[in-house]
Design a protein that fits this description.
- The chain has 146 residues and is an all-alpha fold.
- It folds into two domains: 56 residues, no CATH class; 75 residues, no CATH class.
Length: 146
């Protein structure tokens, strides 16, 4: 499965693509006609491929398939980015790095693939795209707290 497919589409698309590739690899490796004894092997592979998940299930009205990027918990996402480890003395930079990564994943990739230009979803990340407005506001907040 191409990395682009797994990173830009939902879990259902990834699972379908993976199942197709697994089926073709079995058919090619064992020189089978399509649909022969591969069914049992495919069922086993599909059943156990679901062990590795990157995200929790979304509410039913939003879920299209298992393992969607939209289901990644924000706390887990912050741990993945690890900007607080890289910038331990700069809470503004650390927070903005997480926001930038979240904007890329949730807005551009997941919402862009999920909604395909749906009305209003671009407003979600306007603050992250607009010059230094978010940077300045975050720095102001930190200075105000100090």
């Amino acid at each position: 499965i191409p990395t682009t497919v797994s990173r830009t589409c939902d879990g259902g698309t990834t699972s379908r693509w993976s199942a197709m590739q697994i089926g073709m690899s079995f058919i090619g490796a064992y020189k089978m006609c399509a649909g022969e004894a591969a069914v049992a092997d495919l069922a086993f592979a599909a059943k156990h491929a679901g062990v590795i998940q990157m995200a929790d299930i979304l509410p039913a009205r939003r879920a299209r398939g298992p393992n969607e990027p939209g289901g990644i918990k924000f706390g887990h996402f912050c741990d993945m980015v690890q900007s607080d480890r890289k910038y331990p003395n700069d809470p503004v930079r650390s927070s903005l790095e997480i926001v930038a990564a979240g904007t890329m994943l949730f807005d551009q990739i997941w919402l862009g693939s999920y909604m395909s230009g749906g009305v209003g979803f671009t407003q979600y990340a306007t603050a992250a795209y607009t010059d230094n407005i978010l940077d300045d506001f975050t720095q102001y907040g930190v200075d105000y707290i100090k």
